[in-house]
Amino acid sequence: LSAGSLALAIPNSGTSVALGFCRNAEIYREGEPAGQLYKVISGAVRTCRVLIDGRRQIGSFYLQGEIFGLEAEKEHSFSAEAVVDSEVLIIKSPTVPCERWRTGMPSQVWALMGHELKRAQDHARLLAMTARERVAGFLLEMAERIQSSGEVELPMSRQDIADYLGLTVETVSRMLTQLKNRAVIAVPTSKRIVLRKRAALNRLVA
Amino acid sequence: LSAGSLALAIPNSGTSVALGFCRNAEIYREGEPAGQLYKVISGAVRTCRVLIDGRRQIGSFYLQGEIFGLEAEKEHSFSAEAVVDSEVLIIKSPTVPCERWRTGMPSQVWALMGHELKRAQDHARLLAMTARERVAGFLLEMAERIQSSGEVELPMSRQDIADYLGLTVETVSRMLTQLKNRAVIAVPTSKRIVLRKRAALNRLVA
DNA sequence: CGACGCTTTGACAAACTTCAATCCCCGTGG
DNA sequence: CCACGGGGATTGAAGTTTGTCAAAGCGTCG
Which residues are bridge partners to B19 per DSSP? Predict the structure, then answer.
């Protein structure tokens, strides 16, 4: 069920290579032909695009163990970049989408597609809320993915979070401060967030 | 490639029934077990969920010829309702997801899943923009789906549009008025929109 | 120590929502 | 045929939220 479990089977059906990317390095670019899958071995990855006027949108974050790079179309619809220094396993699998759309799909890839769909829907749900709710939802999302019992280590910058949530850095910062002042979270260091009252967070995004 | 073309093949692999739903009637409810596909014969359908505080979110609209009801999970993550009096073809296909996740998937269903993913991603993209841009993007999206040369007949109310765009009815109305005053669109009747300067609209969402 | 990058805070401007009133379209009944 | 009524759509004024711009704080690394 978790994205991590998918990875076990897929690499065996093709060849795969591990590569290192340092912070902000580009893994692939929007518009390039798709056809491989990527697994985060360590670090974190973001998928993003920049609009003509310079605004940047982040489609999703991928943490350790998660798989990215699966596309609905033949070309990448986002660029992928390392959020911090990262190791990425590149899965050159003959079972990857574009090559075999017409011949049936292994169940893992189908499940992965389902994950991506759910991710995008949840993202849209977040973006329809207020700033406070978006930030709360983001923290819960990260906590759930890390399987964390109340503490999250965020690999990404405030700017990354802002671009993911469709807000400005300042607003993200202010909302975190608000939640901190209400004792809903604690922020020992800027990238480490302690979820003090998960119920209050859940209430915000319900 | 268009959702419409998918429908030709799928019904043949199972049984199907056409049903009529009048305006606002529920076709299925969030949380119910999924496992069928639905095709809009006439009218229009919206998928939505309501939050605890009463706010409503619309996931997507489905117009004539489009297929909905495909889910990433075993239960419907949205409710589906008729936007206006509609006819819907219910496709009870043995090839539908939940039943055969593990045995491979026909290419049409894969393509459909890809469409849903793209839809959700585009929706998220819209929701990250300003009100003016969201409304412009919405109009372009509808025009593209109808294959219209510059004129759109919107089946849904302003409230529906607002809930889709994460705005209030008033803001949607004001943005339409703005676009009208700038001669970017014309609004002969409240549900009929003429796209006068498509370039200006495209510039807004670029 | 000092410089640089990221984060936070403050003050103000712009965008969006809220609440209330009015308008408009359309169907219904007199 | 026209008056009436009702739901949706628009508009206005005021309030709240979020963005913008500028400055200050904090941490890290040379």
Answer: B88
Q: Is the CB of A171 under 7 A from strand D?
A: yes
The SS3 call for residue A151 is strand
DSSP, collapsed to helix, strand or coil, labels residue A133 as helix
Structure tokens given for A119:
């991710």
Residues 173-192 of B with CB under 8 A from A: none
Report whether B124 contacts A119 (CB < 8 A): no
| Alpha helices, H only, chain B | 3-6, 97-100, 107-127, 131-146, 158-165, 169-181, 198-205
Q: Note the pLDDT tens digit of each residue in B165-186.
A: 999 999 999 999 999 999 999 9
What lies within 8 Å, CB to CB, of B41 at 6+ separation is B18, B64, B86, B87, B88, B89
**Which class for A179: exposed (0-12), middle (13-18), buried (19 or more C-beta within 10 A)?**
buried
pLDDT band at residue B146 using 50, 70 and 90 as cut-offs: very high
- In angstroms, the CA A123 to CA A128 distance is 9
The beta strands (E) that lie in B30-124 are given as 37-42, 45-50, 56-62, 67-68, 79-82, 86-92
- How far from A195 is each of A176, B12, B188, CA to CA, in Å? 11, 52, 53
Q: pLDDT for B92-131, tens place per residue?
A: 865 545 444 444 456 788 889 999 999 999 999 999 999 9
Beta carbons of A14 and A8 less than 8 angstroms apart: no
Other Cβ atoms within 10 Å of B78 Cβ, number: 21
CA atoms within 13 A on the CB side of A126: 29
For residue A121, give the H/E element and its range. Answer: helix A107-127
- Top residue of A57, A60, A127 to mutate, by most chain B CBs within 10 Å, is A127
Q: Taking the model in full, what pTM does it have?
A: 0.91
